[in-house]
Amino acid sequence: FTVKETESVGQTVYTDIKVTDADTGLNSQVKLRCIEEESSPDACETFDIFESPLNPGEYIGLVVLKKPLNYEERSSYNLVVEAQDSGEDQILSSTANVLIQVEDIQDQDPIFLNAPYSATVPEGSEEGSPIFEILVRDGDTGIPRPIILTIEGDKLDYFQLRQNQISRDGVLSVTLTTSQNIIDREHPEVLKEGGLYAFQVRAREVVDESGPVYGEETTTSVTIVVTDI
Q1: Beta-bridge partners for 59
Q2: Average pLDDT over the chain, rounded to whole?
Q3: Cα 13-17-22 angle, rounded to 5 deg
Q4: Taking a C-beta distance cutoff of 8 angstroms, is the pair 191, 201 a contact?
Q5: Which residue(s) pair with 160 in the sheet?
Q6: Residue 78 CA from chain centroid, whole number
């Protein structure tokens, strides 16, 4: 079954485990437990299971969330559940596997994979000169949204972004290049910082392209050292 990663701790997340015992009396009383040694790591610490009687010898298993989920840390769990009766002469048991898939929910900001960004650029560089590549993806890897990048704080409009490609796993590749505005180290904005020119690149998730409507976002700094020629 599937459970959202934002599900609340203490919530019953599954009720469709059916257990029956054809015996009568004490022999039909069943207890359920998670077998830690056979389940996937941390499964029994994350989920608990309880039996709930319906009729004599008939039970349902209730799976309860014990600790918060995070799809980016773990996307599935395998619970090995043991049903054991209370036999007076002989205790009998059987096991079953319960596979739990964690559903990714959009709750993570975009991630710049190769930040921080800095470069040395000579003044007078031709328009379209490549500076460096920017790699970014949605922090939610299960159902990633499209990402759009923009330059913020480039007061002299010296730079622009050129999209390259999007990989199969949702990584957007963009190249920072020089714009049609030729870089001038003697410009007062550059000169007052000793040849340093700083700005930011903003990454935003696109929720609805028709709007457009944006979701989570993040920014990273870019530092350019402008050299004199």
Answers
A1: 19, 53
A2: 89
A3: 155
A4: no
A5: 177
A6: 20
